[in-house]
Write the structure tokens for this entry.
Amino acid sequence: MNKLTKTQAQLRADQIAAFRAEQRVLGEQGLLQLPEQAADAIRRYHDNLLRELQQAQDVDVNERARHLSLGMQIVSFLGASALAASLFFLFYQYWGYFGTATQVVILVAAPLLCLALACWLLRLDSSGYYAKLAGLVSFTAWVLNIVMLGSIFNLSPSPNAFAVFALYGFLLAYLLQVRLLLAAAMICSFIFIGARFGTWMGSYWIYVGENPEHFLLPALVFFALPVWIDQARFHGFTVIYQLLSVITFFIAVLILANWAGSSYLPWSTSVIEGVYQLVGFVASALLVLYGLRRGAAYLMLAGNVFFALFLYTKFFDWWWDWLPKYVFFLVIGLTAILALVIFNRLRKLQQPGSSH
Amino acid sequence: MDFFSIRQGTNKKLLALALACILLVNGFILAKVYINRSEVIAQLNLSERELQLPYNYGFAREDSSARVSLRWMTPSSRKVTLELDRWHWQYDRNLQLSDAHFASFQFPACSNTTRLRQKRAAWVLLEFDGASYRQHLAQIEQYHGLVMGLSAQTHPELAEQELTERRKNAAELLSEAQTSHSRLFVVDAAADYDLLVQAKQQLSATSRGQLLIVPAELRAGYYRCDAREKRQTEVIIDGLAVESLYVPKHLATRFAGNFADTYVAGTKAEPNQMKFSAQIHYGRLHEPWIADLH
């Protein structure tokens, strides 16, 4: 039992709940009448199992617990954001009253103390919500640490700051299993890698956002990372890696497909935009198929959304000025219906007992 | 070994790495600061003309720290005419470079259709209270003379009220140039530090001002591919790498009643009216700090 990850434990709990519901329906219809002794043994076994799962992995054993769990996640996110903002303004409010040595000590101590607090809370509370909150505050303190040191010693801005933000973010994310920190660490990595690429290409690093091509390779690497390194032990990490990578990749391609001026490719504007439009269509279609094959609904949804975005921006380019508006929107509506027909067919193919 | 013992082992390693990350990165930054400040390679005595007090955009009540920003200009290469406006004299960031210095940035050829205005990290040569400031003063005096020479007879299209307004503005501009315009000028730039060292040596023979090489960021000028403009070697200086300087507590508190009040207590003084001078040191890594403030 101890070998189950949180995701697997939750699936097991869901499976038990589904079994109990189905058993109840079959019993009501007179199709299944288990001997009292066997039914009791199964119930006891499941009760014990659910208790163990709850203690070990803090799973939600029913729908109400699941809703409360979601509420706790939202509240802890808001709490972490508010605590981070509070820490930020606390530093600024009293900063001027401290001498340089005191400032350095406070800056270095803040992330260390928050980290110690997070580890202590992790031992006290099995749900990990409070530890995660402390972890997020530790990350904020770390960002403040680097930014404020740079500020008080007038250091030249450097993209390396984002590398150390990312490094600490990844360490905390894996230590405390915080998806939000993983996302923050990934965003910092994108900025760092983009800035480094920019510097190698001769640009000034601070304008990292002006060159979307910098983000394509890191997005692909992060997308493939959960395939190379199994993330099953870390609840929801695969989704964060792949979804954030997909969003970054397609936004970069969408910009390049409409604004070739930001590309490094030595071709004419129309060729560059055409190439990226093609990349956008093909990659989003492939993502839908990949998601379908892996049973990853979030990838299918992302692929659909970006395919539609590429299609509609193209329609806008071609027909917005040329067609009367009612025809333009009619075409959009008809393509949506066509997509609906295709998805319906795909859905039927996925149903059990499909003849295809 | 079950899952939880694996988790505990991994957690200990992650915790150790997180601690090492905090301590090593801070150690590295502080070592860098120590190396920079271990030797003063240049020293500038600037005043409120070159050091601007930020208005904090309504953030002053929340921010108790004090900072000043370096205010600098570039020499104007444009012909002095009546059409030049006040903005041009104070905020123009264009700089004409020699062919060799411009070429050092390796901007894309004008035959490229994209990416013509790439930004670059650069070294710039700063001149404080030297020939560029004298030239700036001379140009504004010339402009002032042109405006004062206007009359209803020579320019009948100008109404008397407009003439009076122009004369008043020109007189104010001249007064500001003499008393409040920055004397810190970016006079040259190159991607290669050694190129600027040579330029500095050449300029030091003629300029009475202080010269200093610092890192900056710039971009190619807007007209470099327009042959009619004859500004093919022009760059736009976006900023110095370090423009905002932190005022340590022991210096900020010397200004009890004015400077410190503006920041520490968050009161609304008129920062630009305060008179002060600051000794700015540049260290081995070309990073500045305020050594003294009066």
Q: What stands out?
A: Chain B touches chain A through 55 residues (CB under 8 Å).
